[in-house]
Amino acid sequence: xxxxxxxxxxxxxxxxxxxxxxxxxxxxxxxxxxxxxxxxxxxxxxxxxxxxxxxxxxxxxxxxxxxxxxxxxxxxxxxxxxxxxxxxxxxxxxxxxxxxxxxxxxxxxxxxxxxxxxxxxxxxxxxxxxxxxxxxxxxxxxxxxxxxxxxxxxxxxxxxxxxxxxxxxxxxxxxxxxxxxxxxxxxxxxxxxxxxxxxxxxxxxxxxxxxxxxxxxxxxxxxxxxxxxxxxxxxxxxxxxxxxxxxxxxxxxxxxxxxxxxxxxxxxxxxxxxxxxxxxxxxxxxxxxxxxxxxxxxxxxxxxxxxxxxxxxxxxxxxxxxxxxxxxxxxxxxxxxxxxxxxxxxxxxxxxxxxxxxxxxxxxxxxxxxxxxxxxxxxxxxxxxxxxxxxxxxxxxxxxxxxxxxxxxxxxxxxxxxxxxxxxxxxxxxxxxxxxxxxxxxxxxxxxxxxxxxxxxxxxxxxxxxxxxxxxxxxxxxxxxxxxxxxxxxxxxxxxxxxxxxxxxxxxxxxxxxxxxxxxxxxxxxxxxxxxxxxxxxxxxxxxxxxxxxxxxxxxxxxxxxxxxxxxxxxxxxxxxxxxxxxxxxxxxxxxxxxxxxxxxxxxxxxxxxxxxxxxxxxxxxxxxxxxxxxxxxxxxxxxxxxxxxxxxxxxxxxxxxxxx
Length: 661
Ligand code: ADP
Description:
The protein has 661 residues and is an alpha/beta fold. Among the domains are: 43-215 and 372-399, no CATH class; 401-493 and 578-661, Rossmann fold; 503-575, Rossmann fold (3-Layer(aba) Sandwich), CATH 3.40.50.300. Helices cover 62% and strands 9% of the residues. It contains 23 helices and 10 strands. A hairpin with a 2-residue loop joins strand 9 (624-629) and strand 10 (632-637). The relative contact order is 0.09. The structure holds adenosine-5'-diphosphate.
């Protein structure tokens, strides 16, 4: 997958250059793209969407993509299509022969029996072959579908963190995974199969049509002359053309009505279904769902949206029924004409009675073939939009992971970070979450960050850890923009406990070590230092204990505090040069918290560390405290200095102190 993503690489490099220029002068990009709500369109802003990709390029890429994943898929699809097209003609042609022979006074019963046997045998064999081919094709399609799902998930893992939080990108991801066979790149297989089948059907039918017109009624005048007249043939072909065009036109009209419903009513309903899926599939959500009656509200909203959908789709169904009635009426009327024309030619000796079956069948097949071809071409063209969305998604270039500088041993041992006039907005956000942030901190320094909720503390550490990149300003490590370092090496500088840390459904030891092969003594030590030692002793399988129930019924559930201790142990085990802790003890009891802070202090003695904490008493021991307010650093200094300054920190401190007093 990785290589294919390079299609967008040129864009990203160009973008990066311009970002760097922009940063150096500190100006905002004047060509920022905003949507109708005035918010920035992150996908367009980053040039993720390639507006210029042509249909032909998409088809080519789609075919190559599928053929690479499953080389047999197209040959099998075409073979299947040819068999599907030929199959009805077994019945038509053999039945015609049987009927002709039956009408012949010199018929041979033996021959008739043989042909009947052949008809049944070929029918049976053809059906079996079609079923077998269909199943085999299903298996190949399923394999490719799994590959597509994996590619979408892999892209989600690999994309920039900031992008993964973008609601538009997330919706795109969910749409792609919901399409399955119906739309998108995989649908190309079915569409091409149907188109080929229709072409073969048309080919066979046209050959029979030619044969039909070449068969002349016997006689020079009267009805025979009329039937043999070229004008009648042209009229017949004209009516056939009209019937086909009418069918196609109706199918387009109906399709258009459904497309409108999809845009107005189906999308909101699908979003609601996504929300319900994600809420109900995770049992941990069960508490809030029950306590806050979310079920009723969700079902209520779902009922409302599906009501909207039904209301909007009902006229469409009625419309479709009405139009289908006319289409069927028109087609049957045309069929009547065909029977009359073919029957008359047979009566006037153009061909035997059996051929009536053959030629009426051929007209039906021809009409079907052309309609199917047009339907498929229409689906195919509409589907290109979905193919484009899929490749646009895979091609979204990452802004990160482009640096080349190594994070050397010297840097790991002696480092200084600097935020230089940094401004950052989340994708789609109307206002920046951080504005004009400037500060420095280095090895050995303990920094506390305090401030009210939503003041930008977590965002600050996300930028430091390069989970997001600033739109303006620079973050420097030893004087060099952090974007210039190799991404993974840069990440390895940090041991972190995030506020919304995640413990995975792996074994305990694997969770702490973040890998399956690990040093068991060190993991045990990290768990003990994180205050998990006593609990560890109660676990029969120790480090091999499976956490949570997803993979094993015997999986162990952890309390909020215990999970947080495991997250702290993971941070300790990593033992990186710089420690970042975002509310690491929020779920711990006061005794455990005091204990952890003591141990953390020992652990970070020679390291640099940043703590975010709402308990200001725990910031005491830090060398410097940064006070955040509305995305800015409004004060900084030691605890004593900030108390003396009588600013925001003092107010926060006094507010907390009164509870302790
Ligand atoms: P703090 O850690 O100080 O509570 P945050 O840094 O989490 O604050 O958030 C700062 C601001 O950024 C808030 O206004 C919040 O709503 C906004 N914000 C945080 N995360 C996102 C996100 N993923 N997308 C959009 N806005 C966000």
